[in-house]
């Protein structure tokens, strides 16, 4: 009876060791390489861990891209983040919405130094008005510059829609959770 009770208790213990994910493995590898004096390998492991965490963060940002409206399709661009390193870093997500011959792109770009520099324009109604027509989407103010709708959420997240008429793009922009987007990455 005691033997059966011990076996039952062992069955309830989680399997050990718990398999670590790639980020944890890379960070452990970086620490081990550093302690062994292999700075080059430590830096490579850190870069790998950073790349994986950046991909995780991008997936989180992608969740703010609204689903396609009825009769439309949405295709997520999984390569969007690759070009951000050239622009100072940050996180990006992009989707193309299509319906037959009509299509448009919605881009989200967070925590990029170039985007942050736009804060002065979006914080000043006079400058916004000079840049183009102001269009409201809920409480969010977009600038329409020749059919390209742009806003800045929380002074750090760029939202941009381009490629179709305003009336076509507005339903997708209206479906976006701007309050949730403002809390992204915090």
From the structure above, extract its key features.
186 residues, alpha+beta, signal, 7-stranded antiparallel β-sheet, 8 helices, elongated
Topology (elements, then pairings):
Blueprint: H1 2-12, H2 22-35, H3 39-62, E1 73-76, E2 91-99, E3 102-110, H4 113-116, H5 119-122, H6 125-131, E4 133-137, E5 140-145, E6 148-153, E7 157-162, H7 166-174, H8 178-182
Antiparallel strand pairs: 1-2, 2-3, 3-7, 4-5, 5-6, 6-7
Helix pairs in contact: 2-3
In a nutshell, what does this entry contain?
Keywords: Signal. By secondary structure, the protein is an alpha+beta fold. The protein folds into two domains: 1-62, no CATH class; 65-182, Protein Transport Mog1p, Chain A (3-Layer(aba) Sandwich), CATH 3.40.1000.
Could you explain how this protein is built, in words?
Keywords: Signal. Residues 1-20 form the signal peptide. It is a single chain. The chain is of the alpha+beta class and 186 residues long. The chain folds into two domains: 1-62, no CATH class; 65-182, Protein Transport Mog1p, Chain A, CATH 3.40.1000. The chain is built from eight helices and seven strands; from the N terminus they run αααβββαααββββαα. It has helices at 2-12, 22-35, 39-62, 113-116, 119-122, 125-131, 166-174, 178-182; strands at residues 73-76, 91-99, 102-110, 133-137, 140-145, 148-153, 157-162. It has a seven-stranded antiparallel beta sheet with strand order 1-2-3-7-6-5-4, with helices on both faces. A hairpin with a 2-residue loop joins strand 2 and strand 3 (102-110). The protein is elongated, with a radius of gyration of 23 Å. The protein starts with a helix and ends with a helix. The relative contact order is 0.11. Mean pLDDT is 81; it is low at 1-19.
């Amino acid at each position: 009876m005691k033997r059966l009770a011990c076996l039952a208790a062992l069955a309830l213990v989680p399997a050990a060791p718990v398999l670590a994910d790639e980020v944890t493995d890379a960070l452990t590898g970086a620490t081990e390489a550093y302690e062994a004096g292999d700075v080059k390998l430590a830096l490579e492991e850190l870069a790998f861990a950073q790349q994986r965490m950046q991909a995780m963060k991008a997936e989180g940002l992608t969740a703010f891209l609204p689903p396609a409206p009825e009769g439309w399709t949405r295709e997520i661009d999984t390569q969007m983040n690759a070009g951000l390193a050239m622009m100072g870093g940050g996180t990006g997500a992009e989707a193309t919405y299509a319906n037959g011959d009509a299509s448009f792109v919605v881009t989200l770009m967070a925590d990029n130094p170039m985007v942050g520099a736009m804060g002065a324009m979006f914080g000043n109604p006079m400058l916004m008005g000079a840049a183009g027509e102001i269009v409201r989407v809920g409480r969010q103010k977009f600038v329409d510059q020749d059919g390209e709708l742009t806003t800045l959420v929380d002074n750090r997240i760029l939202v941009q829609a381009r490629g179709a008429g305003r009336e076509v793009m507005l339903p997708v922009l209206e479906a976006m959770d701007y309050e949730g987007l403002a809390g992204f990455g915090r």
